[in-house]
Write a structure and sequence with these properties.
The chain has twelve helices and 18 strands. It has about 400 residues and is an alpha/beta fold. Helix 2 runs parallel beside helix 8 and helix 9 runs parallel beside helix 12. The longest helix has 19 residues. It binds pyridoxal-5'-phosphate (PLP).
């Protein structure tokens, strides 16, 4: 088998990307004012069955904006997962609030059992406010991440949020296209069940604009404010008066041109992701000690990122596997380092982090790009069968 480099997750730009970007250039609409931006917003909103959407420069900018819209202020607390990309937590600190780190369950998403226990045992609920018993801080919101395209247990999390008057931000940056097929939220897309949902179009995501994000909500006031905040909070276009501290967060027409072309291919990408996931599944079934992380039963997942779990009976550990794959031109990586253990957050509150640490120790992400060939998958599979070598 020919051994070319197999990257972890790279863009697939074989649709109308060049055509639409060329139009943007030819019409000289390259900045935030162009028509592709509002078109991309409308089409994305339509895809996830939301009334509207507001574009932004990145998923991180979207989460930052969402926190401001929901009234999170300095010294408030926000519950965030520890097992995710750090961009889900950093915006909490941008506004001077404090994260409280929560553990995951076996879906790798936030554990609702621990979330409830934390609210019951570590907080008191007074006059409609959830207060952290340790420091009296007001816990106003929870950021739920749909890790790798899986779905967090939204039914339980939304019930807890309602009981304790918590706002819910869904970080659906990795889960565009994932939706419930059964249960209370059947037909609902990841990102559309909480107060505000965020998508990312970073280079490694299921669709990409190079960099970019989208804010969705059922609440039109939130979206109006999102547009205002992401466009420098201009209250008068002609005289340049501003009524808030705004941000230069709006997506450009060039990015939106890419986004529109990518969105046209999203369902096709999801089909490919599923097909490749099944192919890996077949191979991994026969490898002792190694298993592919599953996606929840009640959903149609976008199958964005694949994780393999290295069990105790696998011949090598996580790091040995990563190095072995690298030596053989296959890019892989461990799951993110837990956020509560990172330098800026070592003093932050973390609630009984156990499962996250366990998964951190055992999970390796393997190549999952939509342009993987079947030969690539067979090559990665053969390398994973390390006991046979
Ligand atoms: C879970 C999670 N949250 C937030 C982000 C931030 O998105 P962006 O890179 O678009 O800022 C990402 C990805 O990059 C992510 O994976």
């Amino acid at each position: 088998m020919d051994k070319h480099f197999i990257p972890l997750s790279v863009p697939n730009l074989k649709g109308n990307e060049l055509k639409y970007v060329t139009t943007a250039v030819e019409t000289e609409w390259v900045s935030t004012g162009g028509p592709f931006v509002s078109d991309f917003e409308a089409k994305l909103a339509q895809y996830v069955h939301c009334p509207n959407a507001v574009s932004c420069q990145s998923g991180t900018a979207g989460i930052h904006t969402a926190l401001i819209i929901l009234g999170i202020e300095r010294d408030d607390e926000v519950i965030v997962p520890t097992l995710t990309f750090i961009a889900a937590a950093n915006p909490v600190r941008y506004i001077g609030a404090e994260p409280v780190f929560m553990d995951c369950d076996d879906s790798l998403c936030m554990d609702p059992v621990k979330l409830r226990r934390f609210c019951q045992e570590e907080c008191c609920f007074k006059n409609g406010k959830l207060l952290d018993k340790k420091n009296g801080r007001h816990i106003k919101a929870v950021i739920v991440v749909h890790v790798f395209g899986n779905m967090a247990d939204m039914e339980s999390i939304l019930e807890i949020a309602k009981q304790y008057n918590l706002k819910v931000i869904e970080d659906a940056t990795e889960a565009l296209g994932t939706y419930y097929t059964t249960g209370t939220y059947a037909g609902k897309y990841a990102g559309t069940m909480g107060d505000i949902g965020i998508y990312s179009f970073n280079g490694n995501k299921i669709i990409t604009t190079g960099g970019g994000g989208m804010i969705v909500s059922e609440n039109s006031d939130y979206l109006k404010l999102a547009k205002h905040l992401t466009t420098q909070a201009k209250s008068d276009e002609l005289y340049y008066t501003h009524d808030m501290v705004g941000y230069n967060y709006r997506m450009t027409n060039l990015q939106a041109a890419l986004g529109l072309a990518q969105l046209e291919q999203l369902e096709q990408f999801i089909d490919i992701k599923l097909r490749n996931y099944r192919e890996y599944s077949k191979i991994l079934k026969n490898i002792r000690g190694l298993s592919l992380l599953p996606f929840c039963d009640m959903i149609r997942s976008n199958h964005w990122f694949y994780g393999v779990f290295c069990g105790e009976d696998y011949p090598v550990d996580r790091d040995q596997l990563i190095h072995y794959l690298a030596e053989n031109k296959v890019q892989s990586r461990p799951i993110w380092g837990l956020i509560n253990e990172q330098l800026p957050y070592q003093d932050a509150r973390a609630y009984h982090i156990e499962r996250a640490r366990y998964y951190w120790k055992h999970v390796v992400n393997i190549p999952c790009s939509t342009n993987l060939s079947n030969d690539d998958i067979q090559q990665v599979g053969a390398l994973l069968d390390i006991g046979k070598r």
